[in-house]
Design brief:
Keywords: Membrane, Nucleotidyltransferase, Transferase, Transmembrane, Transmembrane helix. GO terms for molecular function: nucleotidyltransferase activity. It comes from Chitinophaga nivalis. The chain has 55 residues and is mainly α. It has one domain. Helix content is 87%, strand content 0%. The protein has 2 helices and no strands. The protein is rod-shaped. The N and C termini lie far apart (68 Å).
């Protein structure tokens, strides 16, 4: 039962070079970081403008 899983894993390891895998992880990490910083900055700006606005 586990032989097909091991075969698939071995096939993926052989077919993809390590540089491609590391490059993909790095790109995903960069975009995740950019989105996280944008969300945090947006939240800070929202809280500041909400706190200083007086009706």
């Amino acid at each position: 039962m586990k032989q097909p899983i091991y075969f698939l894993l071995a096939l993926l390891m052989v077919s993809m070079s390590s540089c491609e895998v590391i490059g993909g992880i790095f790109k995903a990490g960069v975009w995740t970081g950019i989105i996280a910083v944008a969300v945090v900055l947006g939240l800070i700006v929202f809280l500041i403008t909400r706190g200083t606005r007086r009706d």
